[in-house]
Amino acid sequence: MKELKKRIREEGKVIGSEILKVDHFLNHQIDPVLMFKIGEKFADIFENKEVSKVITIESSGIAPALMTGLALKVPVIFARKKKPVTLDEGSLSTEIFSFTKQVSNTVYIEKGMLTADDHVLIIDDFLANGEASLGLTKIIEMAGAVVVGIGIVIEKSFQDGRKRLDHAGYPVFSLARIASLENGQVTFIER
Amino acid sequence: MKELKKRIREEGKVIGSEILKVDHFLNHQIDPVLMFKIGEKFADIFENKEVSKVITIESSGIAPALMTGLALKVPVIFARKKKPVTLDEGSLSTEIFSFTKQVSNTVYIEKGMLTADDHVLIIDDFLANGEASLGLTKIIEMAGAVVVGIGIVIEKSFQDGRKRLDHAGYPVFSLARIASLENGQVTFIER
Protein backbone atom coordinates (compact mmCIF):
# COMPACT_ATOMS: atom_id res chain seq x y z
CA MET A 1 0.00 0.00 0.00
CA LYS A 2 1.80 3.01 -1.38
CA GLU A 3 0.37 5.71 0.90
CA LEU A 4 1.16 3.65 4.00
CA LYS A 5 4.79 3.12 2.94
CA LYS A 6 5.12 6.84 2.28
CA ARG A 7 3.90 7.62 5.79
CA ILE A 8 6.25 5.04 7.29
CA ARG A 9 9.19 6.54 5.37
CA GLU A 10 8.30 10.11 6.32
CA GLU A 11 7.06 9.70 9.90
CA GLY A 12 8.38 6.37 11.14
CA LYS A 13 11.19 6.44 13.67
CA VAL A 14 13.61 3.53 13.76
CA ILE A 15 14.87 2.56 17.22
CA GLY A 16 17.79 0.12 17.23
CA SER A 17 17.44 -2.46 14.47
CA GLU A 18 14.12 -3.98 15.56
CA ILE A 19 11.66 -1.28 16.57
CA LEU A 20 9.73 0.96 14.20
CA LYS A 21 7.81 3.67 15.95
CA VAL A 22 4.74 4.88 14.06
CA ASP A 23 3.05 6.64 16.95
CA HIS A 24 1.95 9.59 14.84
CA PHE A 25 -0.53 7.79 12.62
CA LEU A 26 -1.03 4.21 13.80
CA ASN A 27 -0.74 3.38 17.47
CA HIS A 28 -0.88 6.37 19.77
CA GLN A 29 -2.04 9.15 17.52
CA ILE A 30 -4.18 7.68 14.74
CA ASP A 31 -4.91 9.14 11.32
CA PRO A 32 -8.58 8.14 10.87
CA VAL A 33 -8.61 8.84 7.13
CA LEU A 34 -5.59 6.59 6.53
CA MET A 35 -7.21 3.93 8.75
CA PHE A 36 -10.40 4.16 6.67
CA LYS A 37 -8.37 3.45 3.52
CA ILE A 38 -6.58 0.58 5.25
CA GLY A 39 -9.97 -0.89 6.17
CA GLU A 40 -11.15 -0.65 2.57
CA LYS A 41 -7.96 -2.30 1.37
CA PHE A 42 -8.33 -5.27 3.73
CA ALA A 43 -12.00 -5.57 2.77
CA ASP A 44 -10.97 -5.77 -0.91
CA ILE A 45 -8.29 -8.37 -0.25
CA PHE A 46 -10.52 -10.66 1.82
CA GLU A 47 -13.83 -9.97 0.05
CA ASN A 48 -14.27 -13.54 -1.20
CA LYS A 49 -13.69 -15.13 2.21
CA GLU A 50 -17.26 -14.63 3.51
CA VAL A 51 -15.92 -12.92 6.61
CA SER A 52 -18.54 -12.87 9.40
CA LYS A 53 -16.37 -11.28 12.09
CA VAL A 54 -13.14 -9.32 12.41
CA ILE A 55 -11.02 -9.93 15.47
CA THR A 56 -8.02 -8.15 16.99
CA ILE A 57 -6.33 -7.51 20.34
CA GLU A 58 -6.56 -4.27 22.31
CA SER A 59 -5.36 -1.59 21.85
CA SER A 60 -3.38 -0.83 18.70
CA GLY A 61 -5.24 -3.34 16.54
CA ILE A 62 -8.62 -1.74 17.19
CA ALA A 63 -8.36 1.11 14.66
CA PRO A 64 -7.48 -0.96 11.54
CA ALA A 65 -9.84 -3.76 12.65
CA LEU A 66 -12.74 -1.37 13.17
CA MET A 67 -12.31 0.19 9.72
CA THR A 68 -12.09 -3.26 8.13
CA GLY A 69 -15.32 -4.24 9.90
CA LEU A 70 -16.93 -1.02 8.67
CA ALA A 71 -15.96 -1.77 5.07
CA LEU A 72 -17.13 -5.39 5.33
CA LYS A 73 -20.24 -4.47 7.41
CA VAL A 74 -19.46 -7.12 10.04
CA PRO A 75 -18.89 -6.92 13.82
CA VAL A 76 -15.40 -6.40 15.25
CA ILE A 77 -14.25 -8.13 18.43
CA PHE A 78 -11.23 -7.02 20.38
CA ALA A 79 -9.71 -9.60 22.70
CA ARG A 80 -9.05 -8.14 26.12
CA LYS A 81 -5.70 -8.25 27.90
CA LYS A 82 -7.24 -7.83 31.33
CA LYS A 83 -10.21 -9.82 32.51
CA PRO A 84 -12.89 -7.15 32.96
CA VAL A 85 -15.12 -7.39 36.05
CA THR A 86 -18.08 -7.57 33.69
CA LEU A 87 -16.76 -10.61 31.79
CA ASP A 88 -18.96 -13.69 32.08
CA GLU A 89 -17.75 -17.03 33.35
CA GLY A 90 -16.56 -19.42 30.70
CA SER A 91 -14.69 -16.97 28.54
CA LEU A 92 -12.09 -18.25 26.09
CA SER A 93 -8.50 -17.34 26.86
CA THR A 94 -4.92 -17.96 25.81
CA GLU A 95 -1.43 -16.75 26.75
CA ILE A 96 0.40 -14.36 24.45
CA PHE A 97 4.00 -13.27 24.97
CA SER A 98 4.93 -9.77 23.86
CA PHE A 99 8.58 -9.50 22.86
CA THR A 100 8.34 -5.70 22.68
CA LYS A 101 6.98 -5.36 26.20
CA GLN A 102 8.66 -8.51 27.59
CA VAL A 103 5.50 -9.62 29.37
CA SER A 104 3.09 -12.48 28.96
CA ASN A 105 -0.59 -11.55 28.78
CA THR A 106 -3.65 -13.70 29.01
CA VAL A 107 -6.13 -12.50 26.41
CA TYR A 108 -9.86 -13.11 26.74
CA ILE A 109 -12.89 -13.35 24.52
CA GLU A 110 -16.29 -13.74 26.04
CA LYS A 111 -18.00 -17.06 25.63
CA GLY A 112 -20.63 -17.13 22.90
CA MET A 113 -19.18 -14.19 21.00
CA LEU A 114 -17.74 -16.57 18.41
CA THR A 115 -19.69 -19.57 17.13
CA ALA A 116 -18.82 -22.58 14.97
CA ASP A 117 -20.48 -20.78 12.02
CA ASP A 118 -18.07 -17.86 12.10
CA HIS A 119 -15.54 -17.07 9.38
CA VAL A 120 -13.05 -14.90 11.17
CA LEU A 121 -10.55 -12.39 9.80
CA ILE A 122 -7.70 -11.44 12.15
CA ILE A 123 -6.41 -7.87 11.81
CA ASP A 124 -3.40 -6.46 13.65
CA ASP A 125 -1.17 -3.40 13.46
CA PHE A 126 2.17 -5.24 13.56
CA LEU A 127 3.44 -8.73 12.79
CA ALA A 128 6.75 -9.51 14.48
CA ASN A 129 7.07 -12.95 16.07
CA GLY A 130 3.49 -13.92 15.34
CA GLU A 131 2.58 -14.51 18.98
CA ALA A 132 -0.51 -12.30 18.92
CA SER A 133 -1.93 -13.70 15.68
CA LEU A 134 -1.21 -17.30 16.68
CA GLY A 135 -2.88 -16.69 20.05
CA LEU A 136 -5.97 -15.38 18.29
CA THR A 137 -6.08 -18.37 15.93
CA LYS A 138 -6.13 -20.60 19.04
CA ILE A 139 -9.06 -18.76 20.61
CA ILE A 140 -10.98 -18.74 17.32
CA GLU A 141 -10.45 -22.47 16.86
CA MET A 142 -11.39 -23.17 20.51
CA ALA A 143 -14.79 -21.69 19.61
CA GLY A 144 -15.01 -24.04 16.61
CA ALA A 145 -14.84 -21.11 14.18
CA VAL A 146 -12.64 -20.85 11.09
CA VAL A 147 -9.75 -18.43 10.53
CA VAL A 148 -10.16 -17.22 6.94
CA GLY A 149 -7.16 -14.92 6.90
CA ILE A 150 -4.81 -12.57 8.68
CA GLY A 151 -4.41 -8.94 7.66
CA ILE A 152 -1.39 -7.04 8.96
CA VAL A 153 -0.69 -3.33 8.60
CA ILE A 154 3.10 -3.53 9.06
CA GLU A 155 5.03 -6.78 8.83
CA LYS A 156 8.58 -6.96 10.16
CA SER A 157 9.64 -9.59 7.68
CA PHE A 158 13.06 -9.98 9.30
CA GLN A 159 11.38 -11.57 12.33
CA ASP A 160 9.85 -15.00 12.13
CA GLY A 161 6.12 -14.31 12.54
CA ARG A 162 5.37 -14.45 8.83
CA LYS A 163 7.16 -17.76 8.46
CA ARG A 164 5.31 -19.25 11.43
CA LEU A 165 1.89 -18.14 10.13
CA ASP A 166 2.65 -19.38 6.59
CA HIS A 167 3.83 -22.67 8.06
CA ALA A 168 0.60 -23.02 10.06
CA GLY A 169 -1.32 -22.60 6.78
CA TYR A 170 -3.07 -19.27 7.35
CA PRO A 171 -3.43 -16.83 4.43
CA VAL A 172 -1.53 -13.69 5.47
CA PHE A 173 -1.65 -10.33 3.72
CA SER A 174 0.51 -7.43 4.92
CA LEU A 175 0.10 -3.88 3.62
CA ALA A 176 3.76 -3.01 4.20
CA ARG A 177 6.56 -5.56 4.52
CA ILE A 178 9.79 -4.42 6.07
CA ALA A 179 12.93 -6.29 5.04
CA SER A 180 15.23 -4.47 7.43
CA LEU A 181 15.57 -1.62 9.89
CA GLU A 182 19.37 -1.68 9.89
CA ASN A 183 21.30 1.61 10.18
CA GLY A 184 18.17 3.55 11.04
CA GLN A 185 16.79 2.90 7.53
CA VAL A 186 13.45 1.34 6.62
CA THR A 187 13.89 -1.05 3.69
CA PHE A 188 10.69 -2.50 2.25
CA ILE A 189 10.16 -5.78 0.44
CA GLU A 190 8.81 -4.53 -2.87
CA ARG A 191 6.24 -6.66 -4.58
CA MET B 1 -29.60 9.19 20.00
CA LYS B 2 -32.57 6.97 19.29
CA GLU B 3 -30.78 4.03 17.67
CA LEU B 4 -28.25 3.85 20.50
CA LYS B 5 -30.97 3.79 23.15
CA LYS B 6 -32.76 1.03 21.24
CA ARG B 7 -29.57 -1.06 21.20
CA ILE B 8 -29.01 -0.43 24.93
CA ARG B 9 -32.60 -1.49 25.68
CA GLU B 10 -32.40 -4.61 23.51
CA GLU B 11 -28.82 -5.76 24.11
CA GLY B 12 -27.65 -4.10 27.32
CA LYS B 13 -27.32 -6.28 30.39
CA VAL B 14 -27.79 -4.69 33.79
CA ILE B 15 -25.58 -6.05 36.57
CA GLY B 16 -26.53 -4.95 40.07
CA SER B 17 -27.71 -1.35 40.11
CA GLU B 18 -24.54 0.28 38.77
CA ILE B 19 -23.15 -1.71 35.84
CA LEU B 20 -24.51 -1.72 32.30
CA LYS B 21 -22.84 -4.25 30.07
CA VAL B 22 -22.90 -3.36 26.39
CA ASP B 23 -20.24 -5.80 25.28
CA HIS B 24 -22.08 -6.76 22.11
CA PHE B 25 -21.86 -3.44 20.29
CA LEU B 26 -19.63 -1.02 22.21
CA ASN B 27 -16.73 -2.34 24.24
CA HIS B 28 -15.75 -5.90 23.44
CA GLN B 29 -17.62 -6.64 20.26
CA ILE B 30 -18.11 -3.40 18.34
CA ASP B 31 -20.75 -2.60 15.73
CA PRO B 32 -18.71 -0.48 13.27
CA VAL B 33 -21.77 0.88 11.47
CA LEU B 34 -23.31 2.13 14.73
CA MET B 35 -19.90 3.60 15.70
CA PHE B 36 -19.74 5.41 12.35
CA LYS B 37 -23.13 7.02 13.08
CA ILE B 38 -21.98 7.92 16.61
CA GLY B 39 -18.91 9.60 15.11
CA GLU B 40 -21.06 11.62 12.71
CA LYS B 41 -23.35 12.65 15.56
CA PHE B 42 -20.46 13.92 17.71
CA ALA B 43 -19.02 15.72 14.68
CA ASP B 44 -22.37 17.49 14.20
CA ILE B 45 -22.63 18.47 17.84
CA PHE B 46 -19.13 19.89 18.09
CA GLU B 47 -18.78 21.21 14.52
CA ASN B 48 -18.45 24.86 15.55
CA LYS B 49 -15.71 24.22 18.11
CA GLU B 50 -12.81 24.15 15.61
CA VAL B 51 -11.70 20.78 16.93
CA SER B 52 -8.08 20.06 15.94
CA LYS B 53 -7.72 16.75 17.80
CA VAL B 54 -9.87 14.08 19.38
CA ILE B 55 -8.55 12.38 22.49
CA THR B 56 -9.62 9.29 24.43
CA ILE B 57 -8.18 6.54 26.67
CA GLU B 58 -7.48 2.98 25.56
CA SER B 59 -9.29 0.74 24.91
CA SER B 60 -13.07 1.18 24.86
CA GLY B 61 -12.95 4.84 23.92
CA ILE B 62 -10.98 4.20 20.73
CA ALA B 63 -13.90 3.13 18.50
CA PRO B 64 -16.19 6.15 19.07
CA ALA B 65 -13.18 8.53 19.13
CA LEU B 66 -11.82 7.16 15.85
CA MET B 67 -15.15 7.57 14.09
CA THR B 68 -15.50 11.11 15.44
CA GLY B 69 -12.02 11.90 14.12
CA LEU B 70 -12.99 10.42 10.76
CA ALA B 71 -16.09 12.60 10.54
CA LEU B 72 -14.17 15.73 11.61
CA LYS B 73 -11.06 14.81 9.54
CA VAL B 74 -8.70 15.36 12.50
CA PRO B 75 -6.19 13.07 14.26
CA VAL B 76 -7.24 10.92 17.21
CA ILE B 77 -4.94 10.33 20.19
CA PHE B 78 -5.49 7.55 22.66
CA ALA B 79 -3.84 7.98 26.04
CA ARG B 80 -2.03 4.83 27.10
CA LYS B 81 -2.53 3.05 30.39
CA LYS B 82 0.87 1.38 30.28
CA LYS B 83 4.04 3.21 29.45
CA PRO B 84 5.14 1.62 26.16
CA VAL B 85 8.85 0.86 25.74
CA THR B 86 8.79 3.09 22.67
CA LEU B 87 7.48 6.14 24.55
CA ASP B 88 9.85 9.12 24.58
CA GLU B 89 11.08 10.79 27.72
CA GLY B 90 9.07 13.74 28.89
CA SER B 91 5.62 12.34 28.23
CA LEU B 92 2.62 13.89 29.97
CA SER B 93 0.89 11.72 32.55
CA THR B 94 -1.77 11.73 35.22
CA GLU B 95 -3.40 9.26 37.64
CA ILE B 96 -6.90 7.98 36.92
CA PHE B 97 -8.87 5.81 39.32
CA SER B 98 -11.26 3.28 37.80
CA PHE B 99 -14.20 2.55 40.11
CA THR B 100 -15.29 -0.37 37.91
CA LYS B 101 -11.90 -2.06 38.02
CA GLN B 102 -10.89 -0.70 41.44
CA VAL B 103 -7.40 0.18 40.26
CA SER B 104 -5.50 3.38 39.73
CA ASN B 105 -3.82 3.79 36.34
CA THR B 106 -1.27 6.28 35.19
CA VAL B 107 -2.18 7.38 31.68
CA TYR B 108 0.36 8.77 29.26
CA ILE B 109 0.45 10.99 26.21
CA GLU B 110 3.69 11.50 24.39
CA LYS B 111 5.32 14.89 24.63
CA GLY B 112 4.71 17.10 21.63
CA MET B 113 1.60 15.31 20.50
CA LEU B 114 -0.54 18.15 21.86
CA THR B 115 0.47 21.79 21.44
CA ALA B 116 -0.81 25.07 22.84
CA ASP B 117 -2.66 25.64 19.54
CA ASP B 118 -4.82 22.54 19.89
CA HIS B 119 -8.59 22.60 20.41
CA VAL B 120 -9.25 19.19 21.87
CA LEU B 121 -12.46 17.17 21.97
CA ILE B 122 -12.56 14.36 24.56
CA ILE B 123 -14.60 11.28 23.57
CA ASP B 124 -15.31 8.32 25.85
CA ASP B 125 -17.62 5.31 25.91
CA PHE B 126 -18.92 5.79 29.47
CA LEU B 127 -19.22 8.62 31.97
CA ALA B 128 -19.58 7.44 35.55
CA ASN B 129 -17.54 9.29 38.16
CA GLY B 130 -15.79 11.46 35.63
CA GLU B 131 -12.29 10.32 36.63
CA ALA B 132 -11.22 9.47 33.07
CA SER B 133 -12.50 12.69 31.49
CA LEU B 134 -11.10 14.86 34.29
CA GLY B 135 -7.74 13.10 33.95
CA LEU B 136 -7.71 13.85 30.23
CA THR B 137 -8.59 17.51 30.81
CA LYS B 138 -5.53 17.71 33.09
CA ILE B 139 -3.18 16.26 30.48
CA ILE B 140 -4.61 18.52 27.76
CA GLU B 141 -4.20 21.60 29.93
CA MET B 142 -0.65 20.55 30.94
CA ALA B 143 0.16 20.79 27.23
CA GLY B 144 -1.33 24.30 27.13
CA ALA B 145 -4.13 23.13 24.83
CA VAL B 146 -7.85 23.91 25.23
CA VAL B 147 -10.62 21.42 26.00
CA VAL B 148 -13.48 22.41 23.71
CA GLY B 149 -15.90 19.71 24.80
CA ILE B 150 -16.55 16.23 26.06
CA GLY B 151 -18.63 13.71 24.10
CA ILE B 152 -19.88 10.64 25.94
CA VAL B 153 -21.63 7.63 24.42
CA ILE B 154 -23.39 6.47 27.61
CA GLU B 155 -23.73 8.64 30.68
CA LYS B 156 -24.68 7.07 34.01
CA SER B 157 -26.42 10.18 35.25
CA PHE B 158 -27.02 8.65 38.69
CA GLN B 159 -23.29 8.85 39.35
CA ASP B 160 -21.56 12.17 39.88
CA GLY B 161 -19.32 12.48 36.80
CA ARG B 162 -21.70 14.74 34.91
CA LYS B 163 -22.05 17.08 37.85
CA ARG B 164 -18.27 17.25 38.31
CA LEU B 165 -17.65 18.04 34.61
CA ASP B 166 -20.45 20.65 34.52
CA HIS B 167 -19.05 22.20 37.67
CA ALA B 168 -15.56 22.37 36.13
CA GLY B 169 -17.12 24.28 33.21
CA TYR B 170 -16.63 21.81 30.35
CA PRO B 171 -19.39 21.47 27.71
CA VAL B 172 -20.58 17.84 27.94
CA PHE B 173 -22.82 16.07 25.46
CA SER B 174 -23.95 12.49 26.07
CA LEU B 175 -25.76 10.44 23.43
CA ALA B 176 -27.65 8.37 26.02
CA ARG B 177 -28.25 9.46 29.62
CA ILE B 178 -29.24 6.79 32.09
CA ALA B 179 -31.29 7.93 35.08
CA SER B 180 -31.29 4.54 36.79
CA LEU B 181 -30.41 0.87 36.50
CA GLU B 182 -32.57 -0.18 39.46
CA ASN B 183 -34.39 -3.53 39.35
CA GLY B 184 -32.50 -4.62 36.25
CA GLN B 185 -34.21 -1.89 34.22
CA VAL B 186 -32.57 0.81 32.11
CA THR B 187 -34.39 4.12 32.59
CA PHE B 188 -33.24 6.97 30.35
CA ILE B 189 -33.38 10.70 30.95
CA GLU B 190 -35.50 11.81 28.01
CA ARG B 191 -34.72 15.17 26.52
From TrEMBL, chains A, B:
Pfam families: Pribosyltran. 5-phospho-alpha-D-ribose 1-diphosphate binds at A128, N129, G130, E131, A132. The keyword Glycosyltransferase applies. Pathway: Purine metabolism; XMP biosynthesis via salvage pathway; XMP from xanthine: step 1/1. CDD domains: PRTases_typeI (cd06223). One of its GO terms (biological process) is purine ribonucleoside salvage. This is Xanthine phosphoribosyltransferase. The gene is xpt.
